[in-house]
Amino acid sequence: MNAILALCHFCEQHGPRVLFCTQPFHERNNIIPATISNDTESIAANDSINSELSEVISKSRLKSPTPKFTSTESVDTAGHNDGPSMAKDRCEGCRSLQSSVPGYVSNDLEAKVKYVSSQQPHHDQLYSTVRQACIRSLSSEVCLGREGPIFFGDSDTRYVLSYTFYLQDTKSRGGRRLYSIIVVMMDKIYLLNSWPFLVKHLQNIVKDLQAKAKCVYEEEDKTQPIRPPNVRSCPVPTQRRLQRSRSSAVRSMVDMTGDETLFKSLHLSFTWVLKACSNRLTEKLLEGPPTEDSIVDLEKQEEVVDDFVLVGTEKIADQDNQETSSVADSAIAIGAAMNSFSLTDDTYCSSSNDQIPVFHNLRELYQTMGYHSFHQLAHHVLVGNQIIVQTDSYMITKSIIDCLQVLLPKGCCRIIYYSETYEESWKCNFLGLSKFCSLPKHVLDSEHYALVNVDSPVPTNNVLELSLNPFQGYKVQLFTGQPPMDKASAPKILEKMEKAVANQKLNWLVVEQCLICIKEEWMNKVKVLFTFTKAGGNRSEEDTKKLLQVFGASGEDKKALKFWMTGLSSQYKNHMRQTSKQI
């Protein structure tokens, strides 16, 4: 934290003065004054300070962990404590450090920062800034009641947080002296954000000083009372003369509090405040709001615990039959998927070897199948038709499904990687089916499915061909009940995705990010359509058509948009329904 923490005092003879200040010096800047003594003798003589650090901090009532510092060293800062002609004008009340111990240094080894405490700042410009802040904090810039925190300053004179307080003293006018602790820095936003932290801990320091001064005041008042104990009104003239005669005797803050190690304690307290405040606020990279996929992932983690579905986590009735499904049926589907994993791990994975190729990304599948077959398969995926994959290898089946699900939001993917029997489309839209299983007649007669069949090649010893093309000899075929479609009848999102996948100039990592952006853009349209149709009440077909024209969607996109509604998170759906009811 690039700030200066200073203790200021209003002297009855010399006016506002800076008593004590602590400032950090970063080693990389190499701006620590050359007069600071770092000799081994002074370090060895002060090794006991480490053991006293926790005790001193606890005495000052700072309820926070202590920083990791090395020894607190006595340093020589002669010539830097006072401004021009200030040394001659200093009295005991204006002086904090004696000539034998003109300052303290604490080394923060982790951050490579030295915290230096002295009578005055070491640079002339900083001295002038702190001096002006001291004058304003003890004269014009005070809060209501003259005790408490206040903020003032500007970009030219720097910004200041000042905490003004009184200490009781039997030898001062009115029985008390005015002090302030100021925090001076250039960053206004940082200082204001640190206001609660700084005010809290400065108040703890002030309370500790006031408690010490009160004990000395009460002890002295018993032996030499300022006024007779029975007099409750204004002091009589003789008493005024007594007060005026005693006010001539100035004394240091050490005498007022009765603490010989007062400024050593203040050095440790000021150092901790600067250190802790700098660690409290850090810069972070904002990545924007969470995507629908990340919210869906969190909801799935809450729903599935130890392979069991928490019944009742989502029970929402929709008018669209594609969106409605019972929780019990979902539990059966997930349980079947879990059981299939345990079976395939033992059967298929054990029989596989390193020579069986797999698809690593969607581009490899695109290149293997060709444009026309991939275009038709991707269209089935985007509109929510069931994709059935039949191969001789579980690893190939899994890799194909993993590649295809990149085209959809995670909330739209219901996957069974392997099954010995056919599973209906309402249970899963991606199904890995055994080669020995045939499809039911009602599926073959339907247009809402696509079958990807992969036949393994005859074993060959041509290692060169296998290394150049892992799927050399493999036959990938697409079967569907839907007639071949032209490019114009496909959703617009499919055209964007195909351009990204087919662009050989783009690395696959770049293509992945591009697909994520395309899906997020499409999900925003889905949210608008869901709010308009589901949460916004009954809408006519003509109104829906006008809405599609507004955000650039055609009739071919409507089927894909409706299917993608099932990928919206439950959190968003519930929020929009509740909002529409309130309106």
Plain-language structure description:
The protein has 583 residues and is α+β, with helices and mostly antiparallel strands. 43% of the residues lie in helices and 16% in strands. The chain has an eight-stranded antiparallel sheet. It has a five-stranded mixed sheet with strand order 12-13-11-14-15. A hairpin with a 4-residue loop joins strand 4 and strand 5. Helix 5 packs antiparallel against helix 8, helix 11 crosses helix 12 and helix 16 runs antiparallel to helix 17. The longest helix is centred in the middle third of the chain and has 29 residues. The two termini are 49 Å apart. About 20% of the residues have low confidence.
Radius of gyration: 39 Å
Structural class comes to alpha+beta
Question: Separation of termini?
Answer: 49 Å
**Strand segment tally:** 15
Number of helices: 20
Query: What's the rounded overall pLDDT mean?
Result: 75
Shape: elongated
Strand residues, percent: 15-25%
Q: Which parts are unreliable, with pLDDT below 50 for 5 consecutive residues or more?
A: 29-71, 74-87, 228-233, 236-248, 311-353
Largest sheet, order of strands side by side?
3-4-5-2-1-8-7-6
